[in-house]
Design a protein that fits this description.
heterodimer; A: mainly alpha; about 0% strand; B: alpha/beta; Rossmann fold; six-stranded mixed β-sheet; globular
Chain lengths: ~400, ~450
C-alpha cells in the first residue's frame, strides 16, 4: 500500500491547479478518496465522527443488489438456453448471462460516471457516490434486449436532466434509475415490451445463440395476463415460479428470493426505511385484494390473487430498491407510511386498470416521487401547527 | 417530580474513563485566562488595563452593549496580557496570580440581579432562544438547572460540585426571585436533589438527555417570545455560595480523560487555569499527535497544551488526532475496529456498538448533501424536525426557522447528530450561524 500511496502522492501535483492534468482534478480526488480514507480531521464542531460515510452507505446498497444481479445473470442464461432448446450446465448459463449483462453494466457506469465526473469538475466539487447505486440499478431494470446505445442515451438523459441540473446526488426529485427506464419506455416502446424484449436469443460475444424453438414464448407473466381472454386466467407461471424467479422479465425483478435477501441486507444495516418497504407491500396487498374482490374479465389482471400481484413483475424490486431511495422519497416517519402505501396502491391500480401499461410499479414510484415533498410538507406543517397552538395556549 | 424517559440519542462509550473517585491536587498554574468567545453574545470592552491588579471576582471587562454584564477574574493577581487576534479581537485575557486568596466581597442584601451581574456569574447563565448570555433586563419564564452531564466521558457533576451542594437551596431561593415561573432541576434517578426547593424532573435515557435544551423541550418547551434561562448545577451551587458567603468561588474539579490520557483522573483546579498544569506528564507517551479538547469530544473546543481551561467546562478530553494514517479503502473495511453506531460495519456484530472505543479526530469521509433520512431525528429527543430545521437555516428562511423551532435549540443539541451524520455536515456551526443571524434580524 505504501508504494501505491507514494505513487498517488507523486502524481498529485499534475492534477492540482496549474498542473497539466488539472482538468482531471476531481477524478484524481475521487480516485484518491476511493483508495485511501482521507486523513482530514474535524476543524469545527464535534471532534469525532462516525466511520459511516456516503461511500460505505452506497456500497452497502450495491452489496444488497448483488443477489439480484447474480440471479439475473443465471436467469438470462437459463431463459436463453430454454428459448433455443439447448441443454446447458449451470455454469454455462451463468457465463452467458454474465456476457450478456456485462456490456450493459459497463455502458451504464461509463456514461453515468463520465457525466458525474464532468459535473464534479465543472463545479470543482468532490465526486458524489450516488451513481454507484444507480449504475447497477439500470442494468437490472432495463430489458436485456435493449440496444446498448439506447441504454446509453437514456442514462445520459436521466443523469443530466433528472439529477445534475437539480444539483447532483441528494438533490434530485425523481429516482434516476427509474427515469432511465421511463425514458426508454416512452421513447422506444417497441423495444421495451412484448415477448421479444426480455429473453436474449442471439449470442453474447459469440457465445450461445440460436433459433427459438417452437412453442417458446418470451412473454412475462404480466404480459400473458394482459392479453388473457375469458373468465379464467390461463397462466403458465405460478406464484411459486415467480417467487423463485426462473421466468422472463427485466433482469433484476424476477426472483423474489434474491430481492428478499437484498431487502434483508438493507433493513439490517438500517439504510432503507422499513416503514416505506413494509407500507409498499401492505398497499399492494390491499389494492390487490380489492381488485381481486371485484375481479372482471375486462381487466384480466384483477383475477390475479394479491400474493401473485406482489410476486409478479417489478413490484417487489421497486418496493425494496426504488421506493426506499431516501432522496426521492418521503423523509418524515409518518410521511414514509403514506408514501409507501400509496406506491403499493398505485402500482397495482395502474397494472390492473390501465391496459396500456402491464406493469405499474415504475410509474407508481415516479408519481409518488413527485408527491413526496407534498406529503412531507403536510407532516411538517402539523408539527408547525402544534408549535403555534402551544404558543397560543400560554 | 416527574420521570421523563427519552429513547432517542446514543451513549458513546469512549476509552479513557476515570476509574477512581480520588481527586488529585493540580500543579501550580502560572497564568489564568478568560476567553471571551466562551461567553456567546458578549462583546468585550475592557475595564482593566494590562498591569492592573484584580481581585478574584472583580470585573475584567463588560459587554459593549450593556455595561452591567461583567466577566470577572477567577483569581486575584495582575492582568498580564490582553491577547488580540485579527482586527484587534480579544482572544484571551491573561491574569498572573499573586498567590493570595483575596476576593472581592459582594453585599448580598443588594438586588440579586445586581449581585449576579457584578460577580460575573450572570455571564455563566445561558438563555434560550439564541443560546447566549441573558440580557440584563429580561425576566425569564422559567429557569432550568441541569444536574448531570450525559456527554461522552463527562465528569459527574455531583462530584465536581462536592460540598457546595449545600448551597443549592440558597441558589434556588435566589433564582426564584428572578423568574415569574419555576426553577426546575433535571437529574438522573440516582441523584438526591429533592430538598433544594426546585421542581425536580428525573431523566432516563442516553445522551443528550443531560442537555439543557432537551430537558426544557421535554418539560416545558420554549415558545416564540418566551425566554428561559439554563445553567448547570455547578454554576447554581456557585450562585448559592456567593449569596451565603458574599464571595465568588471559581474553584472547581476537572475531569481529565480520554484515550490520549495515560491516567485519567479528577483534578482540583480553578477556572481558567493553564492546561499544562492539568495535563503535564499525563498524556499517553507515543508518537501519535494529540488533540486536546476543552470540554467533551462533541461540543468542546480544540486547544493546545499552552491553552487554558475554558470557563464553561470542567472537563478536558485528549484524543489522538489520527489513529491510522492513509487507511486503504476504509469504506470497504470488514474490520470490527471501524466504529460506527450504524449496522453498516462489522463492529455491531463483533463487540457491539457499546463496547469501549478509541476514536480519533478523522472525518471518515467527505461532506455530502443530506441523503439518508431521519438520521438527525434519531439523535435529538425533541419534538423538532431536525433535518427540515437545518435546511431552513441553510436557506436562511426566517419564517420557517421560527416555525420549525429554532428558538428551542442550541448548537450543542445537534452535536450528537453531527457525530452520526453520514453526510459529515457541520451541524453545530450551521445552527450557531442560524441563531446569530436570527438574533441580528430580530433584535
Amino acid at each position: 500500500m505504501k508504494s501505491l500511496r507514494k505513487f498517488m502522492d507523486k502524481i498529485k501535483p499534475h492534477f492540482q491547479e496549474g498542473g497539466k492534468l488539472s482538468k482531471l482534478e476531481s477524478v484524481y480526488d475521487g480516485m484518491e478518496t476511493f483508495l485511501f480514507t482521507p486523513n482530514t480531521t474535524s476543524r469545527s464542531g464535534v471532534h469525532i465522527h462516525d466511520s459511516n460515510d456516503m461511500k460505505r452507505t452506497m456500497i452497502t446498497v450495491v452489496v444488497a443488489l448483488l443477489p439480484c444481479l447474480l440471479f439475473a445473470m443465471y436467469n438470462i442464461g437459463f431463459q436463453h438456453f430454454k428459448a433455443i432448446g439447448a441443454d446447458a450446465t449451470f455454469w454455462q448459463m451463468f457465463l452467458f448471462g454474465l456476457l450478456a449483462m456485462l456490456p450493459v453494466i459497463v455502458v451504464s457506469y461509463a456514461v453515468g460516471l463520465g457525466i458525474e465526473f464532468i459535473g464534479a469538475q465543472i463545479h470543482h466539487k468532490e465526486i458524489q457516490e450516488g451513481f454507484l447505486v444507480t449504475g447497477i440499478l439500470i442494468p437490472l431494470i432495463v430489458p436485456i434486449n435493449t440496444p446498448l446505445w439506447m441504454t446509453a442515451v437514456a442514462t445520459a438523459f436521466a443523469v443530466i436532466f433528472a439529477k445534475e441540473i437539480f444539483g447532483g446526488t441528494g438533490m434530485n426529485i425523481f429516482n434516476v434509475a427509474l427515469i432511465t427506464r421511463a425514458f426508454l419506455f416512452f421513447a422506444y416502446p417497441s423495444k421495451m415490451s412484448g415477448d421479444a424484449a426480455f429473453v436474449k436469443v442471439d449470442s453474447a460475444f459469440g457465445y450461445g445463440g440460436g433459433n427459438v424453438v417452437d412453442g417458446f414464448s418470451g412473454a412475462t407473466p404480466l404480459g400473458e395476463v394482459a392479453i388473457n381472454v375469458g373468465d379464467k386466467l390461463n397462466l403458465d407461471t405460478t406464484t411459486v415460479d415467480a417467487f423463485i424467479g426462473l421466468i422472463p422479465g427485466s433482469p433484476g425483478e424476477t426472483s423474489m428470493i434474491a430481492i428478499l435477501i437484498g431487502a434483508a441486507i438493507l433493513l439490517i444495516t438500517g439504510i432503507a426505511s422499513w416503514r416505506v418497504m413494509a407500507s409498499v407491500f401492505i398497499g399492494g396487498l390491499a389494492m390487490g385484494a380489492l381488485a381481486h374482490a371485484f375481479a372482471t374479465p375486462t381487466y384480466p389482471a384483477s383475477m390475479l390473487d394479491p400474493l401473485a400481484q406482489l410476486c409478479f413483475g417489478g413490484f417487489a424490486f421497486a418496493a425494496v430498491f426504488m421506493a426506499t431511495d431516501p432522496v426521492t422519497g418521503a423523509r418524515t416517519k409518518i410521511g414514509q407510511y403514506i408514501y409507501g402505501f400509496l406506491i403499493g396502491v398505485f402500482a397495482i391500480l395502474i397494472r390492473v386498470y390501465n391496459g396500456g401499461y402491464p406493469e405499474g410499479a415504475m410509474l407508481a414510484v415516479l408519481l409518488m416521487n413527485a408527491f413526496a415533498p407534498l406529503i412531507d410538507y403536510c407532516v411538517v406543517q402539523a408539527n408547525i401547527n402544534r408549535r403555534l397552538k402551544r404558543a397560543k395556549a400560554q | 417530580m416527574a420521570l421523563i424517559k427519552l429513547r432517542k440519542g446514543f451513549d458513546l462509550n469512549l476509552k479513557g474513563k476515570i476509574t477512581q473517585d480520588e481527586v488529585l491536587e493540580s500543579q501550580q498554574s502560572e497564568n489564568y485566562a478568560i476567553v471571551p468567545d466562551d461567553f456567546t453574545g458578549i462583546i468585550p470592552r475592557m475595564e482593566k488595563k494590562e498591569g492592573d491588579t484584580v481581585l478574584a471576582g472583580e470585573a475584567l471587562y463588560h459587554d459593549k452593549n450593556d455595561e452591567h454584564i461583567k466577566v470577572t477574574s477567577p483569581v486575584s493577581g495582575t492582568l498580564k496580557q490582553v491577547v488580540r487576534g485579527n482586527r484587534r479581537k480579544i482572544m484571551a485575557v491573561v491574569i498572573e496570580p499573586n498567590g493570595n486568596e483575596a476576593s472581592k466581597e459582594f453585599d448580598t442584601r443588594d438586588n440579586p440581579r445586581t449581585v449576579l451581574l457584578e460577580s460575573g456569574l450572570w455571564a455563566m447563565l445561558r438563555q434560550r432562544p439564541y443560546d447566549i448570555v441573558p440580557n440584563a433586563e429580561t425576566r425569564p419564564r422559567d429557569i432550568f438547572i441541569t444536574a448531570f452531564d450525559s456527554a461522552p466521558l463527562a465528569p459527574s457533576l455531583s462530584l465536581v460540585m462536592g460540598d457546595n451542594q449545600q448551597y443549592l437551596k440558597k441558589a434556588v431561593e435566589v433564582l426564584s426571585t428572578i423568574t415569574d415561573g419555576k426553577v426546575y432541576i433535571g437529574c438522573r434517578p440516582e441523584s438526591s436533589l429533592d430538598d433544594t426547593g426546585a421542581e425536580v424532573n428525573t431523566f432516563v435515557g442516553p445522551h443528550p438527555a443531560g442537555n439543557a435544551g432537551v430537558q426544557v423541550a421535554n418539560v416545558k418547551p420554549v415558545n416564540k417570545g418566551e425566554v428561559v434561562w439554563t445553567l448547570d448545577v455547578v454554576t447554581a451551587a456557585r450562585i448559592g455560595k456567593l449569596f451565603e458567603t458574599g464571595k465568588v468561588d471559581y474553584s472547581t474539579i476537572v475531569a481529565v480523560n480520554g484515550p490520549g490520557v495515560a491516567n485519567p483522573c479528577y483534578i482540583k483546579a480553578t477556572m481558567g487555569c493553564s492546561l499544562k498544569s492539568l495535563l503535564d506528564g499525563k498524556l499517553v507517551d507515543n508518537d501519535k499527535p494529540k488533540r486536546i479538547i476543552g470540554g467533551n469530544v462533541l461540543t468542546g473546543v480544540q486547544e493546545t497544551l499552552d491553552g487554558y481551561l475554558h470557563a464553561p467546562y470542567r472537563h478536558v478530553t485528549v484524543i489522538n488526532e489520527i489513529n491510522k494514517q492513509d487507511e486503504f479503502m476504509g469504506w470497504a473495511s470488514l474490520s470490527p475496529n471501524k466504529y460506527s453506531i450504524y449496522r453498516v460495519f462489522t463492529n455491531w456484530i463483533i463487540g457491539g456498538r457499546h463496547k469501549e472505543v478509541d476514536l480519533d479526530a478523522k472525518l471518515n469521509g467527505g461532506e455530502r448533501a443530506i441523503v439518508l433520512s431521519g438520521e438527525y431525528d434519531k439523535m435529538l429527543p425533541m419534538d423538532i424536525y431536525a433535518e427540515f430545521l437545518i435546511k431552513a437555516i441553510i436557506a436562511f428562511d426566517i419564517d420557517k426557522m421560527e416555525q420549525l423551532g429554532i428558538y428551542e435549540v442550541a448548537p450543542e443539541d445537534f452535536a450528537l447528530a453531527e457525530f452520526a451524520d453520514t453526510s459529515k455536515l457541520e451541524l453545530q456551526r450551521i445552527v450557531r450561524e442560524g441563531l446569530d443571524k436570527m438574533r441580528a434580524e430580530m433584535c
